[in-house]
């Protein structure tokens, strides 16, 4: 039934064609690697293969088509849904359309996102109206709209706009699709708009919603009662459930244009919670609310790529399920599987850079020449090794500051001089030491060891070797 190439691979191949330039594809792969980390923190600062500035340019300024990316994801979602229906031609599963508003809380000032950041239901941030398709085991994020505050289209109006993006081929069939929404979408305009499109509706409703006979919803006694809410010409079936999340039970009402009976309608109303599970996953695993971009285009692209990461993992779960069917999958495990399948080179390069940094750190802490022995040369041995440039030195009682002045005057005998990169340990009084100013060796003062190393290695509290012209003068005074 399916082509030889699996669904996630086909989707990934088509998405890569949205990026015509090589540097855009590389930035996309690095950002996808961050999204598929599964920790919910795909921050550009965590990237090692690409700089954070490069990822910021990719999201905010790069010239690639965001709409084309969305069209590719919708096309694959539609094909997957239609393939799923072809497998069950005699008992085609019903398509459920779930609509809800989710808030991405933000603190601080966002001057360039001022038209998007508002306060709704005591939450300050960006508020999205999302359309989510469910059919059997399929979970397909379809589209979203940004609520722009008071004076702009309401969430219910934005939801009707999202319904117009669903192709007619998905709404046709013997079993009418059913729309699920919560109490924020109970307006008469929204319900009439949904029914006019040939859809059934199951929507939450406030307990204070007035009926045509001046009663309220909470005055009903029998579940499954057929009533007419005020402002609606359609007779609605009403039921309710009791939630025991708090100390006191809470009564939640739900109504539908279908006479489904009180018990079945109450059970049907719970299906809306599937979109809440999607919000929890896409926020907690794929960083939907972690956007830190300074432009509308950058934020929009962040959301689209976050939804794409969810879709890739969901397709992977459909082809190679890792959990028992009917259970919510382990999205962290799925994300790692997709990560190793599609962006292995990014992971390999990131691990190589990390190993290089670890080797550098260990190299700086541990002397490379473990055979180096403590070397203290007497004045006589020093004269023999230095030849005519040897000098007699008196015992010096000095501190760390004095050592800075003494050593650079001693070193011209070798044609090199030593400087201090940082100093934290005072040098005690000692007789004349002999420092081997060679690369990657260890020199000693009494009680203190110093590693002489090239300036390429970031060694703290060591002597750093630098070149200087040959000195023809004598030693220190």
Descriptive notes:
The protein has 477 residues and is an alpha+beta fold. It has three domains: 1-91 and 285-366, no CATH class; 93-284, Transposase Inhibitor Protein From Tn5, Chain A, domain 1; 379-467, no CATH class. It has helices at residues 7-16, 22-35, 52-60, 66-87, 155-163, 168-171, 188-196, 262-269, 273-284, 296-319, 331-342, 344-365, 379-386, 400-410; strands at 96-105, 117-120, 123-135, 138-146, 178-181, 200-205, 225-227, 236-243, 250-256, 416-420, 441-445, 448-452, 463-467. The strands form three sheets. Strands 1, 2, 3, 4, 5, 6, 7, 8 and 9 form a nine-stranded mixed beta sheet that branches. It has a two-stranded antiparallel ribbon with strand order 10-13. A two-stranded antiparallel ribbon has the order 11-12. Strand 11 (441-445) and strand 12 form a beta hairpin. The longest helix has 24 residues, at 296-319. The protein starts with 6 loop residues before the first helix and ends in a 10-residue tail after the last strand.
């Amino acid at each position: 039934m399916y082509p030889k190439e699996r669904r996630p691979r086909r989707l990934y191949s088509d998405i890569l064609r949205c990026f015509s330039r090589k540097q855009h594809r590389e930035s996309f792969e690095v950002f996808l690697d961050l999204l598929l980390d599964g920790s919910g923190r795909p921050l550009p600062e965590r990237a090692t293969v690409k700089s954070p500035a490069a990822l910021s340019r990719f999201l905010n300024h790069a010239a690639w088509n965001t709409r084309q990316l969305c069209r590719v994801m919708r096309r694959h979602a539609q094909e997957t849904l239609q393939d799923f229906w072809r497998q069950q031609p005699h008992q085609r599963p019903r398509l459920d359309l779930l609509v809800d508003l989710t808030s991405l809380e933000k603190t601080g000032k966002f001057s360039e996102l001022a038209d998007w950041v508002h306060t709704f239901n005591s939450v300050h941030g960006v508020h999205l109206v999302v359309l989510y398709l469910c059919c059997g085991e399929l979970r397909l994020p379809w589209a979203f709209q940004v609520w722009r505050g008071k004076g702009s289209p309401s969430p219910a109006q934005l939801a009707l706009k999202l319904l117009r993006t669903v192709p007619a081929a998905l709404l046709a069939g013997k079993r009418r699709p059913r729309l699920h929404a919560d109490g924020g979408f109970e307006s008469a305009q929204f319900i009439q708009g949904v029914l006019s499109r040939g859809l059934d509706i199951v929507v939450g409703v406030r307990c204070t919603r007035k009926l045509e006979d001046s009663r309220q919803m909470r005055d009903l006694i029998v579940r499954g009662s057929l009533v007419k809410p005020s402002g609606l010409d359609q007779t609605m079936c009403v039921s309710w459930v009791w939630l025991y999340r708090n100390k006191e039970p809470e009564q939640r009402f739900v109504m539908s244009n279908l006479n489904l009976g009180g018990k079945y309608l109450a059970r049907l109303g719970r299906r809306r919670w599937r979109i809440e599970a999607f919000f929890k996953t896409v926020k907690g695993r794929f960083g939907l609310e972690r956007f830190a971009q300074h432009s509308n285009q950058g934020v929009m692209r962040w959301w689209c790529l976050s939804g794409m990461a969810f879709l890739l993992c969901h397709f992977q779960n459909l082809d190679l399920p890792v959990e028992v069917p009917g259970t919510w999958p382990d999205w962290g495990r799925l994300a790692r599987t997709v990560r190793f399948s599609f962006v292995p080179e990014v992971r390999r390069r990131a691990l190589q850079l990390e190993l290089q940094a670890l080797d550098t750190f260990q190299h700086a802490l541990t002397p490379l020449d473990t055979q180096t022995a403590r070397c203290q040369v007497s004045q006589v041995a020093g004269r023999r090794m230095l030849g005519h440039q040897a000098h007699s030195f008196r015992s010096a009682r000095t501190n760390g500051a004095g050592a800075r002045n003494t050593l650079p005057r001693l070193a011209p005998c070798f044609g090199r001089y030593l400087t201090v990169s940082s100093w934290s340990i005072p040098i005690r009084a000692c007789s004349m030491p002999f420092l081997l100013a060679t690369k990657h060796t260890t020199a000693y003062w009494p009680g203190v060891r110093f590693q002489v190393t090239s300036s390429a290695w970031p060694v703290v509290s060591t002597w750093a070797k630098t070149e200087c012209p040959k000195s023809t003068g004598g030693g220190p005074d």
